[in-house]
Amino acid sequence: MVNLLPSPEPTPLSAEDRYRLLAENSSDIVYQTSGLNIIWISPSVTTVLGWDEADLIGQPAQKLVSAHQDLSWIVKNRMELEKGHDVAQEMLLSAKNGDEIWFSGVAHPVHGDGGNLEGFVVGMRNIDQKVQTRKRLQESEEKFRSAMVNAAVAVAITDKDDNILEVNEAMLTFLGRSFDDIRGKKMDEFATPEDEESDSELFDQLMSGQRDFYRTTTSSHRPDGLIFFGDLSISVVRNEEGEVLWIINQILDITEQTGVRQKLIQLATIDQTTGLLNRASIVDKLNVSINETVSWGGSVGVLLIDLDRFRSVNDSLGHAAGDELLNEIAVRLQQAVGLRATVGRYGGDEFLLIAPGASNEREMAGLIGQVNAVIGQEFDIAGRRIVLTASLGASFYSPLSNAQSLIQEAATALTEAKRQGRSRLQVFDNVLANAAAYRLQVEEELRKAIANHEFVVYYQPIIKLATFKQVAQEALVRWEHPTDGLTGPVSFIEIAEDSGLIAGIGRQVLEQVCRDIRDTPTLEGKVAVNISAVELSDPEWLDNALRIIRDVGIEASRLIFEITETSVLATTRDVKTDLAILRNLGVGIQVDDFGTGFSSISLLRDLPVTGMKLDRSFVATMLNPNGQENALARGLSLLAQSLGLPGVAEGIESEEQAIALRDM
Fold first, then answer.
1. Which of 116, 208, 351, 571 is most exposed, with minimal Cβ within 10 Å?
2. Taking the domain 15-126, which CATH number applies?
């Protein structure tokens, strides 16, 4: 147990300090202790709890605490106070008349000249109504949840933005999905477009408070190809201010009553937009083709077709025009391939073509040429002329193939075709297989590396050119690979970003940097940490960063976060607010690789930037005094000076480069 040792009684706070604490903490009661005994308490204790000041002066602070209060947190809180940390705690206090009232307290440690904890100052705020409301809400939620789980009707609870929070088994049965399938999705993703259009006005009225609920019919496209119909009732739960907290969706399955199930089974194999085989059916067809091929020793070719930038058609002309275009493409593809191949819609703007008998690119060349030709012909959609291209991925049967592996290989080839610039064919081969296997291997190793904390941080000094003295450092991550040894970021950063694992690596790097700042006296000045586009895109990134800074216990001003123009433009989130919060806490915001993008200067205007880093490409070629790079570097240096922003140049490898930059 951590004890507060007897010590000379700390100097009581002045009246001014006490009332400042009272105001700043919005407290109803403030008291100060010597050790664990109260030496001063605000007169408000009489009004709030009925105690006289004389009843409590010299008494243990615990006298205020109800006998029904769980005190398991006391030891932990005292340890935090010993460390100099403020602690917050909800607790049940006893009034003099025996009433029990909930308060929220914040304790601030008071240390003596020798650094020993002599006592603490506590601000208490009455939260009894809030706690009682919370308890009633919890009880109500438990009753509702019990009724929901056991209900025969399908029930889904979403937030005000329609994101699914909870569903019961009846809803999962209606949708034909598991909870993992719908986690993080919206309810309207499982409705038909016709439902969304017909219900939009009713939904708007519900959300605005013009009606309490509405009832309509809905349908769900299940993964097994069936469409289930339901009687849908939607209501909302509001808070005291009338704001929507949750949306309650209740669906009664009426598929049987409509008498259409058998008809739906017959239609389940056809894509309703294009009239082609749908995804499930084209996969079944591929399985049949493979089985037939095996029986006579032949082969099967698969061509996965992705329309380049099809989304722009939907965005500019609308989904109806997009559907019309998809239907026209389907007609052309069927006419082009005839009986030589089977075409299906694999999903979105992707089509899957099965070519029985094709064992290599040469044998499928005719089909590929016709596919490109019909897609490349001009389309007349909604009075607009549209010219398209397609990216193609091909794969061919091998003795170990099945439908899923062939499609996956074609998808891998298609991804490579897009990476190389779109509007081209890529055939799956051993090189792609090895590359895909390597990426999967690295991804798996990265997951283990994150779990095993295999990433280490090295610090590259940042030198002030005027004095050639170190003023800061940049954190560089390295991977202490269990078999390959110390590995640089070139070997894993791209894969980490593509897989999203960079977020976990970034958290570990930030934690390590914060601990090093706290525990390493020789690590002086600010430390720059790179933030990736994946991290900026994460809505929880800011909260995670603030939690790490707070939990480790360092000054936020010791950190600089480096962001690139690419990372800002890559995220769909408005990161300006996040960066402004960090800046207000003292974190520096630096634009990395400055000068390489189209909008770098606009970042200086739009974001709370505190510095910029000149890209190494300028430094590497700037020694020619009359060269273009020298002029650009000089211009960027002057820009930084005029804006009052410190500039950092990366990639300085010689004294001549350093002197040239210093003299700008």
1. 208
2. 3.30.450.20
